[in-house]
């Protein structure tokens, strides 16, 4: 996705998301976020939950690889030395305590694994901080990051970790972002893209319904993902927290 277009979309209101439609040109595919493939290969409908009902986003574990010092990683581009298909991430933070108005000034940390399933700051990467970053929400409650499409590892579906704080540093939400699944989903396309270094494919992939974090449902954690292999992908998601 072109950077100029991404920044333009970021300036839109917190409740305005781009309309996603199917495109017959495979080189500019728009991903249908409502199609889900179960672990047995069948497909079903899984509609993403919007923020309009002001339902708190599910709280999840920070996992075994939280960021050690997120305040030192204030940056929009979190790729570091990691290669992969570009993913632009736009997250809107809404405050349930204020009728789901945008939470300006919220501190938003994200982190995820690289295309091979590795996390920085741990194991063989203790001196690296790739794919980790913090941004401050604007007046529309929005933050934006440039990263790569995450890979996957045994037992987990593709996901992104998020930790939200108030401007004063009070922790108000630890959650994870889930990705749509389907025969034409970004997950399937990306993991088939060995030319871009994604070599695992989907063999042995853990779908959301079997994931040890998401198995209780992902209605408040499901992102909208659009784009293509050639142009990169964009992820948009709203997180409802209570300040």
Report the total helices. Answer: 2
How far the N terminus sits from the C terminus, by CA atoms, comes to 33 Å
Radius of gyration: 17 Å
Report the β-strand fraction as a percent range. Answer: 25-35%
Mean pLDDT: 85
Query: Residue ranges: pLDDT <50 for 5 or more in a row?
Result: 2-51
Class by SSE composition: mainly beta
Share in helix: under 10%
Largest sheet: 5 strands, mixed
Summarize the helix and strand pattern as letters. Answer: HEEEEEEEEEHEE
**What's the total number of strands?**
11
Q: Which outline best applies?
A: globular
Give a short overview.
The protein has helices spanning 3-10, 186-191; strands spanning 35-37, 43-45, 86-95, 101-102, 107-111, 132-136, 142-148, 159-165, 171-178, 224-228, 232-241.
Label this structure with key terms.
243 residues, mainly beta, disordered N terminus
Describe the structure.
By secondary structure, the protein is mainly beta. Helices cover 6% and strands 27% of the residues. It has helices at 3-10, 186-191; strands at 35-37, 43-45, 86-95, 101-102, 107-111, 132-136, 142-148, 159-165, 171-178, 224-228, 232-241. Strands 3, 4, 7, 10 and 11 form a 5-stranded mixed β-sheet that branches. It has a 4-stranded antiparallel β-sheet with strand order 6-5-8-9, with no helix packed on it. A hairpin with a 5-residue loop joins strand 3 and strand 4. The longest helix is centred in the N-terminal third of the chain and has 8 residues, at 3-10. It is globular and about 45 Å long. The chain starts with a helix and ends with a strand. Residues 2-51 have low confidence and may be disordered.
């Amino acid at each position: 996705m072109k950077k100029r277009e991404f920044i333009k979309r970021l300036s839109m209101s917190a409740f305005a998301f781009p309309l996603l439609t199917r495109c017959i040109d495979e080189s500019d595919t728009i991903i249908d976020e409502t199609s889900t493939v179960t672990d047995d290969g069948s497909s079903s409908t899984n509609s993403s939950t919007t923020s309009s009902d002001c339902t708190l986003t599910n709280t999840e574990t920070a996992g075994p690889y939280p960021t050690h010092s997120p305040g030192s990683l204030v940056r929009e581009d979190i790729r570091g030395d990691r290669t992969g298909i570009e993913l632009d991430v736009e997250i809107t933070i809404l405050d349930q305590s204020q009728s789901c108005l945008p939470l300006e000034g919220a501190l938003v940390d994200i982190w995820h694994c690289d295309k091979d399933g590795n996390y920085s700051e741990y194991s063989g990467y203790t001196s690296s901080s790739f794919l980790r970053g913090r941004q401050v929400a604007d007046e529309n409650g929005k933050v934006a990051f440039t990263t790569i499409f995450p890979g996957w590892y045994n037992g987990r579906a593709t996901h992104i970790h998020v930790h939200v704080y108030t401007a004063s540093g009070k922790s108000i939400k630890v959650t994870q972002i889930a990705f749509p699944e389907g025969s034409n989903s970004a997950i399937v396309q990306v993991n088939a893209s060995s030319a871009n270094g994604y070599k695992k494919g989907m063999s042995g992939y853990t779908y959301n319904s079997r994931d040890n974090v998401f198995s209780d449902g992902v209605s408040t954690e499901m992102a909208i993902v659009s784009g293509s292999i050639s142009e990169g992908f964009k992820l948009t998601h709203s997180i409802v927290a209570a300040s």
